[in-house]
Amino acid sequence: MMDWTDPACRYLLRLISRHTQLYTEMVPAQALWHGHPERFLKGHPAETPVTVQLGGSDPLQLARGAELAEAWGYDEINLNVGCPSDRVQSGRFGACLMREPALVGELVAAMRSATRLPVTVKSRIGVDDYDSYDALCLFTQAVIDGGADALIVHARKAWLQGLSPKQNRDVPPLRYDRVAALKGDFPALPIMLNGGIRDLDTALAWLDTLDGVMIGREAYHNPWLLAEADRRIFGDLSCAAPARDDVVRAYRDYVAEHWQPSMPITRFTRHLSGLFQGLPGARIWRRALSEQGAVRGAGPEVIDQALEARQAALETPATPSTA
Question: What is the Cα–Cα distance from 31 to 68, expressed in whole angstroms?
Fold first, then answer.
């Protein structure tokens, strides 16, 4: 999720769940090819297990990106063949590559030959009018022939003309049946479902049919849904859900270590907005982060102030109704 799952976001999510596989923002392979990998690949050791997601259409560039990802300590490499944004299309990568399954197979093979890490592919069920089930099977076979270790399928097709990236996440209907059928026809390939999953109950239900579930924007806007993932999804009964206030304080320590006065503090605090979603004081928490974060020169103390504001609100007796 470009501009969303940066290192700070991933660190926060790792404080909530120990076992959930995290993903980076999509990194253009071309940018890594031209140098400065630390700008795109630097993270925190605590993030692991974490997958780096690459975008591109040049086998040499993607192979180099795979090499660098392994050198920088990532656990998996994912090729994005699902992003519908205009800037991605202009670089001939993302969802438009679904029209070129042979090329995708070649890209996977190039990455596979350059790293010992698992190489996976994230796709849609189709693109524009290239959206038949037969076309999806042809694409899947090309991914297998290239040596991919797994396929993650967003169960919507992408419209590259006429819909914005945001609309492409909502307007095309979800076709979970297509993904389930794909698993039936390619049983040896690990296949994971993406798109529209909003809770662990739904994720668990799909694990009877598929090999995994990816939750994207819901996990960002409501990160606490991952708090029970270690126990319920991964079966680690020793991992009790952490206390939210403890997560906030641990994240605050991370921010204090990485923030610099030249940085807007909102670069870090924006990831915290949904942490108390559905609980009393959530609105006060969000408002405090927003208002205090907008103050010139604000730093990590904003997080302390927001936590204190929420706690004070919880301790203030409600005004009796006069109705």
Answer: 12
Q: What tokens does 299 get?
A: 């730093």
Cis peptide, bond prior to residue 242, ω within 30 of zero: no
Q: What is the reported pLDDT for 163? A: 67
Q: Which residues of 169-183 are buried (b: 16+ CB within 10 A; e: fewer)?
A: beebebbbebbeebb
Q: How confident is the model at residue 95 (pLDDT cuts 50, 70, 90)?
A: confident
Binding-site residue set for FMN: 53, 122, 154, 194-196, 216-217
Q: Which residue has the higher pLDDT, 159 or 42?
A: 42
Full residue range of the structural domain in which residue 290 is found? 244-315
Inter-axis angle of helices 244-258 and 7-16, to 10 degrees? 150
Helix (H) or strand (E) holding 121: strand 119-124
Q: How far apart are CA 89 and CA 24, in angstroms?
A: 20
State residue 126 phi and psi, 5-degree precision. 175, 175
Inter-residue contact 103 to 57 (CB < 8 Å): yes
27's CB contacts (< 8 A; 6+ apart) are: 40, 41, 52, 53, 54, 55, 65
Domain membership flag for residue 102: yes
The total domain count for the chain is: 2
Supply the residues annotated as catalytic.
Answer: 83
Instruction: Choose the final residue of a domain: 232, 264, 285.
Output: 232
Nearest 5°: phi and psi at 58?
Answer: -105, 120
Q: Are residues 200 and 268 in the same domain?
A: no
- Let me know whether 50 and 195 are in one domain: yes
pLDDT attached to residue 168: 65
Residues 146, 223, single domain; the answer is yes
Max mean pLDDT among 20-24, 127-131, 156-160 falls in 20-24
- Checking if the pLDDT of 121 tops 70, the result is yes
